[in-house]
Amino acid sequence: MPKHTADNIRYSWQLLRAGPLKLDGGSMFGVVPRVVWTRTVTPDDKNRIELTHNCLLLTSESPDPRLGRPRRILIEAGTGDKLDEKMTKVFGLDPSRAAHHLVAGAGLDPGEIDQVIVSHLHFDHAGGLTRRCEPGETPDWSADADGAPGDASGDSPDVRLAFPRAEVVVQEREWRDALANDAVMTKTYYRDHLLPLGLPLPDGSPRVRTLAAPAPFAQGEHPPRSALPETTADQRTVEAAPGVGAFLVPGHTWGQQAVTFTDTEDRRIVFTPDVLPTAWHTGAAYSLAYDVEPYSSMLSKRWLLTEAERHGWHLLLDHEPADPLRRVAKNAKAWYTLEPAGGA
Questions:
Q1: Cα(292)–Cα(302) distance, rounded to whole angstroms?
Q2: CB–CB of 252/171 below 8 Å?
Q3: Which of 1, 111, 172, 322 could disulfide-pair with 6, CB 3.0 to 4.6 Å?
Q4: Where in the chain does DSSP place strands (E)?
Q5: How far apart are the first and last CA of the chain?
Q6: What value does the CA radius of gyration of the chain take, rounded to a whole number of Å?
Q7: 99 near 74, Cβ under 8 Å?
Q8: 225-248 tens-digit pLDDT
């Protein structure tokens, strides 16, 4: 374990299910034919499969000396409550289960969250960084007043910061691509969950902190499908927060990151983003049609599963609707199986 991600800091954690998410089954399985993926999951009459938004609420076991109390971190923010009625129905969302509501339900004021670490900035992972204004509230940001180009995600131009005192941590490449709207999908990076992050924190410091984790392969390199990076997980991990690390798993986006920490049971937990969104996606070719580079996604998945099995990591899958906490085991086909670990 690298010193910068361990440092004897351990976290208790709570799984927050920030509502369902229904996505097109074909899009979720890319090149895998329907006749194959429907053996494991049954779509509804609109060809959607039901996923969920898995978020983690972390609390440091010991007080953080810089804060004088335990540090509180949220991993992922879900879609939130801003999508309009039409899109809310399309994606099968439940706005009452937005992440800021769940944090409040866990006994914390959303203003008590110190950091939000997002794997990437698509709306279903970062949309919940902002929320609709409630009646009588003054907006933190207004799309009408801002005048910036791009789409807003909902029918209300006025939003509030969902976690007003939280630093937002993301990879530098992801932040740059999100602002440029560089994605396969035309509407996934929305200005009403990105541009408000330009507002400073209450102490005047920048709200967004970007990381620059090393890439698994050199730029321009075209490794064979069985290749593994020469660098280890420890060498590729950078500090996202005290005792919490992040490393790149590119493919779904170029700047997508996984997040890792040690919990109070001395388990290394790795929150996996859309390189491995569910246990149904364990197969090498089971990438998403939304991926900017499916081949890179396949390479990232092979490396992630190899490292997880070798080091005994517990993987927490970001969209898994059943038990999202999994252990990795080798199988008879020289590949890997995800086994429920319980305790999520």
A1: 17
A2: no
A3: 1
A4: 11-24, 48-60, 72-75, 115-117, 130-132, 141-142, 158-161, 167-171, 208-211, 238-241, 244-248, 257-262, 268-272, 314-317, 325-330, 336-340
A5: 22
A6: 19
A7: yes
A8: 888 888 888 999 999 999 999 999
What is residue 17's three-state secondary structure?
strand
Residue 270: its H or E element: strand 268-272
Q: Is the dihedral of CA 271, 277, 283, 289 positive or negative?
A: negative
Quote the DSSP letter at residue 195: G
Strands 268-272 and 314-317: parallel
Q: Domain 3-340: which CATH class?
A: alpha beta
211 DSSP β-pair partners: 171
Instruction: Give pLDDT tens digits for 89-109.
Output: 999 999 999 999 999 999 999
Q: How many Cα atoms within 13 Å fall on the side-chain side of residue 8? A: 3
| Coil, helix or strand at residue 5 | helix
Residue 105's nearest CA partner among 18, 168, 12, 10 is: 18
Can you list the positions of beta strands (E) in 150-256? 158-161, 167-171, 208-211, 238-241, 244-248
Token duo for residue 230: 């020469």
Provide the pLDDT for residue 1.
Answer: 38
C-alpha to C-alpha distance for 187 and 150, rounded to whole angstroms? 9
Structure tokens given for 9: 């800091």
What lies within 8 Å, CB to CB, of 113 at 6+ separation is 72, 73, 74, 103, 163, 165, 166
| Overall pTM surpassing 0.90 (yes/no) | yes
